[in-house]
Amino acid sequence: MFGSVQIVTDQVENKVACPTTALVTAGAETFVFVQQKKPSKEKPGQYEKRNVVLGLRMPHWVEVTDGLFPGDEVVVKGKVFDALPVRSPIDGYVVRFDVIPGQVVKAENPLFEIHDMSKVWVRGFVFEKDLAKVRLEQPVRIRLASDPAFLATAKLVRTNYVLSSTERVLSVWAELDNPERKLKDNMLASMTISAGVNRPVTAVPIGAVLNEGSQTYVFVKKPDKPDKADYFDRRPVEVGRRDDRFVEIKNGVKPGELVAIGGVQELRTAYASVR
Predict the structure, then answer these.
(1) H/E element holding 272?
(2) How much is the pTM?
């Protein structure tokens, strides 16, 4: 109700003293609140107001010549400041605060949320069937939904120990340096975990593969012509596994054939106009 209660009175050289922070001044009256050892019927409350007479003052203590006895438990109140700097224990940015000037808060109430954005954690989800392939310190690649050209590498630094009961996935986290503060909280990203060396397969960059309805195809360069111009055939393909960079081609392209990876949208438009 009033503050923290401590045994703050003491007897030094036959003098009773208490901290200056325990004193309350109202006009010409100076008093303290003393915790009652045995509340009486007349004063059933936990605290008793006592007027005091002060004597010699010290930096943090003051002599009480009347009103207190050695061992009395008095309430130590905090001093009220018009403005008080609050220093964060970390460098960062204020990302959230739910208080306003003049609002009364308790000691356990959060005032501000501060994030150190020099390093960020990216959260990913691993399906239960793939858990045996995942371990700490594995390299991962991070791509942003808002910037397709963004590509960063990191390592797994933490995994959860409980799977979600509905999706059957395990949360994992990768730590990523963010010196330019481009990455923000709650941005959408994709995480690709390098699980090891796979068997050799025919694959093309993901940007070379196009879809039209249920058909998947690529543009394959024809053998050199006498006029040295580049000609491409649209060729249906059967795809397999993929990651954030490559798509496996099971059928439709042979190793060594050249596939268009740039200007594929223009090739699709040109093919549609002459078909």
Answers:
(1) helix 264-274
(2) 0.52
